[in-house]
Amino acid sequence: MSDQRFPHTYSSVLDELGRRLAEARSGRVQLLTGPRQVGKTHLLRELERRFAGRVVYAAADSPAASLPGWWEAQWSAAEAVARQGSAGILMLDEIQYVPAWGRRLKAEADRVAHAKIPLHVVVSGSSSLRVGHGARETMAGRFEVLRLLHWPARELAEHFGLSRRRAVEVAVEFGTYPGAVALLEQPDRVRSYIADAIVEPAIGRDLVALETVRRPALLRQVFAVAAGHPAEILSLQKMRGQLTDAGALETLAHYLFLLEQAYLVAGLGKYSTREVRRRAAPPKLVVLNQGILAATAMGASGDGLADPRLRGRWLENACIALAWNAGQAVSYWREEPREVDLVSVGSWGRWAVEVKRGAVTAGDLAGLLAFCARHRAFRPLLVCEPGEERAGRTAGVPTCSWKQFLLDGPLE
Predict the structure, then answer these.
(1) Are 344 and 353 a contacting pair, CB within 8 Å?
(2) CA–CA dist 225, 247 (Å, integer)
(3) What is the pTM of this model?
């Protein structure tokens, strides 16, 4: 069942796309995009079963798709279905593998609309940058975007029969890729699966295929540094100091942007009402799925998470990534010596969130209270270890455990 607090989950996107395809008249092309291995193909196949008899499904990354006439055959088959009565549905999976797909899709969509053929068209792609760029260039006004993002822990519990407690622990240590659930008893296989099926194709295929990536080795190094500093504020100058193939600061910033478009790592900006301060502040690095951390951080999973400092960074990263994947506008705030881990604006409301590992003291709340005193539209929230909630509530700060936050977000 969909949840408005998490609009980009499998359940929510399945329900929303199902509603659009049930409409009697076809509208704009539906563009389904998101990270690799989050269930886009499975979602389309589920809708194919729901609308049995009305759907023509085709995968553009199949061997048959390279044969002459494949593209035209899919449209002819879908139009034949559409003329039988109810609106037909054409699903083109992994559309980015079709040469000049944006131009060709525009021509077909315009032709179908002009002929008044009742045909819904759904296309999917793994990289928002590759698919989105083609759509923006040629499909302006003709498409609607649906983003299926990284799963929250609650989706693992609902779809795989895990207890909520187990689901949230898995989410922190191994991430939330649905394909990894069957491998949880073999942690090394989980990490290999994520590295080989998600991280490497996203960097080695999705991003380096772009003309804007002229130094792929540098891109890989930027990713490695970012993944090694989850939930840390790291200036581009310091980042460049850790690279063997150093580049201009503008190039590093651009590559961080590309990594976010590939749903791997985001560089959060500083919250400020002044544009100049926002631009001058160093980014806060957030890995967008804990599974990427598990696959790339040496010795940082399993017993390694017993290290308090490392565990604190992983928990903070998980909380920020949850907000990003829920579609919130996320940033951080720092005015030395005070800091707020997460500033979130969006459908959840306006929140200033401090994620605290270990015992909570009054000093831990100083940044949170200072920020909310200065920005009164925001509500404070302390996210802490289970059993430490009392300290925050005694100080008058709404408080929840990190387990509750990762399952439900900030509750009223």
Answers:
(1) yes
(2) 14
(3) 0.94
Token couple for 10: 């499998």
Using only C-alpha atoms, the chain has a radius of gyration, in whole angstroms, of: 23
* Tokens found for residue 71: 């593209």
From 105-119, 219-233, 285-299, the region with the lowest mean pLDDT: 285-299
Say how many Å lie between the first and final Cα of the chain, rounded.
21
For tokens 């605290």, name the residue.
356
Both structure tokens of 17 = 């796309």
For 172-221, what is each residue's pLDDT tens digit?
Answer: 999 999 999 999 999 999 999 999 999 999 998 888 776 678 899 999 99
Cis peptide before 337 (omega within 30 of 0): yes
